[in-house]
Amino acid sequence: MQPQFDAFLSYHGHDQREVEALAHQLRELGLSVFLDRWYLTPGQPWPQALEHALATCGAIVVCIGPGDMGHWQQREKFAALDRQSREPRFPVIPVLLPNADPALGFLGQNTWVDLRSGINQPMMLAILASAVRGESPGPDLRERVRETLAGVCPYKGLAYFREEDAAFFFGRDAAIKTLHEAVKERHFVVVVGASGSGKSSVVRAGLVPMLRQDTRAPWEIVTMTPNDRPLHNLATALVPLLIPEEGADRQIIAIGEHDRALRQGTVHIRDISERILKEQRGTERLLLIVDQWEELYTLAPESDARLFIDELLTAAAAKALTVVLTLRADFMARAVGYRPLADRLQDNQVIVGPMRREELRLVIEEPAKKLGVRFEPGLAERILEHVGDSAGRLPLLEFVLKGLWDDPARHGGSMLNSTYTAMGELDGALAQKAEEVYHRLSPTEQEALPRIFLQLVRTGASEEATRRRACLAELDKTARAIIKSLADARLLVTGGDARSTEDTVEVAHESLISHWSRLRNWVEADREYLLWRERLRDWREKWSEKRRSRDWLLRDAPLTEAKRWLEQRGADLDRSDREFIADSLAADRLRSLIRRGLVVCTVLILTGFSLWQYRELEVERERQRPTPYEKADWIDVERGEFEMGSPETDKEGFRPETPRHSVHIMKAFKLSGHEVTFDEYDRFAYATNRRPPSDQGFGEKLTEEDRGRLPVINVSWDDAHAYAEWLSKETGKKFRLPTEAEWEYAARAGTTGQRHWGDASMEACTYANVLDQINGKDVKSRYGIKSEPHACGEQHAYTAPVGRFKENPWGFYDMMGNVFEWVADCAHDDYKGAPTDGKAWEADAGGDCGQRVYRGGSWASPAVEIRSAFRVLKPSGLRDLDVGFRLAQDAD
Fold it and tell me: How many CA atoms lie within 13 A of 619 on its CB side?
């Protein structure tokens, strides 16, 4: 039978952009490609369509990105390998995407394609095309495949084994069997073990593959970690199963809605689980794996943790889902301290203890043996002696084994005793590697390193130090460069939620904290500060739980202590901590001012003149002053016609920008020449009792005047709309957000290309404040589109004051770059049915006013986003550090 498609692309949703770029490349090579988002029609029974495409394609290309494979991708992988078992010549081809962690379960495949350094690699694409066609590659291509396979290590270092690594996970057969039996019989099971005992690997690479093999009672399996938002992360894990046909943006909205509903008690996990089992065809049981349960006690607010636990206990008791959690043994006392959980843990534990010597030998020797590599005589015995019978030394063992495998002196032969000695043996290898990285840093970077690590470590009065995730946005450019070096050395791990805009960083494993003496010394020297910081964060969480009530701000001795630490260590605190202390200090000053004001009023006026009245007078004075935005550089825009969006042939374009269509702006309008600034927005916040948005510290390096002229950021569409309405009342003039068509008309300014200045790289430096300059740095990360180098360098690693860059042909500043700008329209997935008269596109059958649109790219955007046609669909309540707005008016 002739295949309907040459290749089926299997991928995780967070790799969509790279995979779509790959699909376009394969099309150009003459292959027909099945990519789900190209062919699956919303509202149609897409599981059947996927199964049909899998069964009739000529080859399956499994695209592997950072992190674990998606749950649907795991199903597709099993279907592909099952078909290959029946059709031995059927090609199953793993493709490594940028920053991928190779899936060891594919090492038996003959053809590997390595695109880790970028999608656009002609040689590798030729290998992939040949494999899809079933052609025998030439000697050059075969050599590249051998190089790729030789570069894949069967040991995991400090990372856990994933489901896709199961073929190389050895030594835990007994624990896996016990856990498997427990899960079949019970609906709530805890896997307990010391830190470093391999709990996560037992569950992910042991239990899950075993459950997948049971085709008589199929399981739906999802995995999560609590982090600091357990309810949100729980919704993130389950919502894609509840509404799998929806796009990523709509799933984000649904996740937020379910998070709120769980908090309010209007929806319960039992209800969601039962609905999933009803909707998922062929699934009989739902398994939720909660890895690193201890994060509920170290990162999450107590109220969220308690609600999370109660929801899971109730759902499991009703047999709506099965919960398997992994818990560090030293946190067991915290777990059993809550009676409802303690009752469920009583007879539902699987202990992951120390491994026997014969099990450890399997861990050491079998992965290498499967790839034809041996240990030099005596080496395995040395390693076994050094591991001993401690339950927590597996990460060190894997780290050493990976180091032996990666040794350049190995050259495909045996792993060497001399290498093991040189790396410091088992107890010294991790610390030695950390020291090597440390000594490669410059003196300035070495000085900054303790501050970075202390953001990534948490300690308690009677607990060992543990790791914590930090947001990369909290760290400066120097810190991010250091983090990259440490991540390349696998000492730190960077990543983030697939549905989150926040990138995170954390210590690769707690073994680094316990075995690197330099880090232990930093932690011990700063233990007083770290303990205070944990108390501060507990207090801050309670304040958040109490709806940011002033009654829960710091005062008296705790505030005095916080002020002292802020003066001494303010640079080491994250933004949320600093803002909490600043709010507490402001409230304390207000209380002091009220006290002094009452004394003065009693003595001088005796009329009860209060600080509240004084503030009202100040507001009134502010109202009498000219509104800065009244004097903004308004530009008249005449009626006209233009082509909106991107043609489908535009390689940089995306589906939301198509189809390209003619728009006739029927009414002239006015548009501000610059984005709304902090000076302008802060008056609104002050007058309406709103909390002024944070400038992320971008203004700290500027004069006060320049800081005020920074474009306002961290404002939602709702905020921008409220500002326009307030300004309209204040001035008697009608202000509004521009429509999407008006915005693009003004941004293009009579030009027809992707950018109003053309594509010359030096022109980009003149017109746009962009972190990744147009035609500048390699922006391979999200889009697979490589830019050419240029000489202009970075302009600002943050927002620039409005008007700093050259205006476009119609006089508008920063239409592209600086900040994204909200527009009036409701979100639509593409331009089908869009208005052609320049009016805002309101909600219709295909629209969503819970989401809105912003345009123009920002200071943090890669080149592909700095285009007149580029558009982003986001929830109307979203606030972000690169999103602002400008206003429009109807013409007089």
Answer: 13
Contact 855, 882 (CB under 8 A): no
Give the pLDDT mean for 343-351: 89
Q: Which of 856, 760, 751 is nearest to 814 (CA)?
A: 856
**Does residue 31 register a pLDDT over 90?**
yes
Cβ burial, residue 215 (10 Å; 0-12/13-18/19+): exposed
Distances, alpha carbon 715 to alpha carbons 547, 681, 880, in Å: 19, 10, 7
pLDDT at position 654, please? Answer: 72
Q: Do the bridges between strand 457-460 and strand 669-672 make them parallel or antiparallel, or are there none, so unpaired?
A: unpaired
Tell me the CA distances in angstroms from 127 to 23, 32, 216, 640, 805, one per residue in order: 15, 16, 38, 50, 45
Q: How high does pLDDT run on average in the chain?
A: 83
Contacts of 637 (CB under 8 A, 6+ apart): 665, 668, 669, 670, 671, 742, 745, 746, 810
Q: Is 34 helix (H, G, I), strand (E, B) or coil?
A: strand
* Three-class secondary structure of residue 127 per DSSP: helix
Residue 608, sorted as left (phi over 0), alpha (psi -120 to 50) or beta, turns out to be left
- In the predicted model, is pLDDT for residue 42 greater than 60? no
Nearest CA to 32 out of 61, 70, 75, 73 is that of 61
pTM above 0.70, yes or no: no
Going by C-beta distance under 8 Å and a sequence separation of 6 or more, which residues neighbour residue 726?
Answer: 684, 687, 688
* End-to-end CA, the chain: 68
Identify which has the larger pLDDT, 536 or 173: 173
Count of CA atoms in the C-beta half-sphere (13 A) of 851: 22
Average pLDDT over residues 675-687: 87
Tell me which of 136-150, 175-189, 516-530, 606-620 is least confident.
Answer: 606-620
Peptide bond into 659 cis (omega under 30): yes
Amino acid at 251: Q
One DSSP character per residue, 350-394 reads: EEE-PPPHHHHHHHHHHHHHHTT--BPTTHHHHHHHHHTT-TT-H
Place of tokens 């349960």: 293
Neighbouring-strand partners of residue 847: 828
CB distance 848 to 676 below 8 Å: no
% of the chain surpassing 90 pLDDT: 34
Residues 739/745/747/748 CA torsion (nearest 10 deg): 160
Above 70 in pLDDT, residue 773?
no
* Pairing outcome for strands 883-884 and 820-828: parallel
Residue 108 pLDDT greater than 90, yes or no: no
Contact 427/396 with Cβ under 8 angstroms? Answer: yes
In the numeric block, the tokens 């000489």 are attached to: 791
Using pLDDT thresholds of 50, 70 and 90, give the confidence band for residue 462: low
SS3 state of residue 802: coil
Is the pLDDT at 69 greater than 80? The verdict is yes
Backbone CA torsion sign across 412, 414, 419, 420: positive
Asked if residue 526 lies in contact with residue 568, where contact means CB atoms within 8 angstroms, the answer is no
Residue showing tokens 């990976």 = 402
Per the structure block, which two tokens stand in for 453? 């690590």
Structure tokens at 227: 């982090």
Q: Are strands 60-64 and 7-10 parallel, antiparallel or unpaired?
A: parallel
Is the pLDDT confidence value at 179 over 90? yes
Residues 6+ apart with CB under 8 A from 641: 662, 663, 664, 665
Q: Which two tokens stand for residue 259?
A: 């998070």
Q: Is 238 exposed, middle or buried (0-12, 13-18, 19+ CB in 10 A)?
A: buried
Residue 744 confidence (pLDDT): 96
Diameter of the chain measured on Cα atoms: 99
